Each structure stands twice: as C-alpha cells, then as structure tokens.
Amino acid sequence: MQIQKHSVAAFLILALGAALIGIAPIFVRLSELSPSWVLFYRMFLALPFLLVLNFYLDSKNPFRLKERKTYLIAAIAGLAFCIDMTGWHWSLEFTSISNATIMVNTAPIYVALFGFFVLREAITVKLILAMLITYLGVFGLIVGSPDQTPSSVFGDAISLIAAFFYAAYLILISRLGHESPTKVILYTTFFCGLFSLPAAFAESSVYMPTAINGWLCLIALAVLCQVGGQYFITIGMPKVKASFAAIGLLMQPITATILGALIMMEWLTIFQSMFGVLALTGIYLARLELTNGSKN
C-alpha cells in the first residue's frame, strides 16, 4: 500500500511538471518581446533558481559534473534545445497553441527513427503503428483547421522541424543518466540561453520588457516552466511505470490546448479534437514503446 501511495504521488508530481510546461506557450504569446528574446529570458531568469537548487541538493559539489565530456554533451544538448525552443516559439506566431504544442511533442517518433537509421536498432510493429497514428492525427490537425492559411501551415511545419531538434536534445540527454539531473538541467539551461542570444539580437532591438507585467510574465515562465516543470518531471519520472509516465507527460499538450482555448480563444472544432486525440494517442504509444524498449 505504501509503495502504491508513493507511485501515485510520483505520478501526480510528474503530471504537475508536464502541466507547468504546458503553460509556457501562454506566456510566450503574452510577452511583448520577440520569440528568441523570450527564450533567452526563460533560461537566464531560471539560472539563479537552478543554482540555489543545486547548492541545496549537493552543497559540497553543487556545479561539478562527474566527467569532463559531459560539459561538451550538455553544450550540444543546449544548442539542440535552443533550436527546438526557438522554432517552437516562432511557430506560435503563425499557428495555434494546440497545433504547435502537439506537433513539437512528436519528438519520440524522431527518436525511434534515429534509433533505426543511425543506431541500427530494430523497429517494432507497435512503433510503426504509433508513427502512423501520430501523423494521421497531425495531418488532420493541419487540414482540419477552420482558419487554415499558408502562414498557419508554415507554423505547423516549423513546429514539426522543432520536434526533430527536441528529439536530438532527448537523445543527448539520455547519455547523461549517470549525472545529477538537476546539474544537467542547469548546464543545458545555461547553454541554451547563451546560444539564443545571436538570434535574439538579429530578431529585434527591443530586448527588455517596458512594463512590470512583461517582467512578471518572463519570471513566471522561468520559474514555473523551466525550473518547476523540468524539476518535477525529473523527480517523478523514475518512480512511475512507463505507461503512467507516458500518460503523465501528455499533460503538457493537454494543458496547452485547454489554456489556448480558455485564454486565447483558440477553440478546437470537433474534427480537430478527434485528430488531436489521435495524435496524442500515437505519441503516447511511441513513448511507451521507446521506454519499454530501453529497459529490455
């Protein structure tokens, strides 16, 4: 009974973390800054909190990683995460929050394809089925939009490309399982913020919010999404079964879709809702199969 209670608590923590990250597109939309400047502040403002968190968890060596090569891997992962987040932020300028968030979460499909084409790993029938279901759902979301325009399709395409770099980030992070997760988050956050600066300066000369509400929006994005969301997922994920972890992570696109409707008035049609559920089902199956495969 005690073990079951711990599992339920871990699942709720994981789901909370995913839900917090699901709030991110709302803050991105509400910010007056360009997409890359929003990304920079999301990372930059999160760093003090991550520094304190790491010092609290490991006061003797709060910032030291076990291997030197980990710093390089973290830097490359930070670059991949930067490209992913920049693309996703830009996609929100063109397409709906639900489309952008669901499509960027197709990253597990790219992870599976990487394993097949690069690592020569066997691809299962279940993974193939998950891919077909996912992209059938994605296709329905694109063609079923009542406000479909060339720019919205462009936004959808950007989010799918961003998913590729999100997959690269996940693959690189998976190689750092021997390191402290909070230290990995700290360094990938630092490098992501650093790499976002060139694009930010190229996008706009307006690099600071002009009102207090703008700062509050960015601080909330950093604390709730970058620190809170990632930390809760990190501590909850290892303590739940793969099936529950895959379900818990779906709280990100679900939360984003609900808030997009309630706050931004981006209501889904019945047709879109059906294909959105289909895409999420495919993503769930892909995550579940990848997790089970990594344990075998």
Please tag this protein with its features.
78% helix; mainly alpha; 296 residues; globular
What's the end-to-end separation, in Å? 27 Å
Write down the overall mean pLDDT: 92
Helicity level: over 70%
Total count of strands: 0
Poorly predicted residue ranges? none
- Number of helices in the DSSP assignment: 14
Q: Biggest sheet: strands, sense, closure? A: none
Q: Helix-strand pattern, N to C? A: HHHHHHHHHHHHHH
Q: How does the helix and strand content classify structurally?
A: mainly alpha
**Spatial shape:** globular
Q: How much is the radius of gyration in Å?
A: 19 Å
Strand percent estimate = under 5%
Whole-number count of domains = 1
Please describe what this structure looks like:
This protein is an all-alpha fold and 296 residues long. The protein has one domain. Helix content is 78%, strand content 0%. It is built from 14 helices and no strands. It has helices at 2-22, 24-30, 35-44, 47-57, 69-91, 97-104, 107-117, 125-143, 150-174, 181-203, 212-236, 242-249, 251-264, 270-295. Helix 1 (2-22) packs antiparallel against helix 11 and helix 10 packs antiparallel against helix 11 (212-236). It is globular. The mean pLDDT is 92.
Give a brief outline of the structure.
With 296 residues, the chain is mainly α. It is 78% helix and 0% strand. The chain has helices at residues 2-22, 24-30, 35-44, 47-57, 69-91, 97-104, 107-117, 125-143, 150-174, 181-203, 212-236, 242-249, 251-264, 270-295.
Topology diagram in text:
Blueprint: H1 2-22, H2 24-30, H3 35-44, H4 47-57, H5 69-91, H6 97-104, H7 107-117, H8 125-143, H9 150-174, H10 181-203, H11 212-236, H12 242-249, H13 251-264, H14 270-295
Helix pairs in contact: 1-11, 1-12, 1-13, 2-11, 3-5, 3-10, 3-11, 4-10, 5-9, 5-10, 6-9, 6-13, 7-9, 7-14, 8-14, 10-11, 12-14
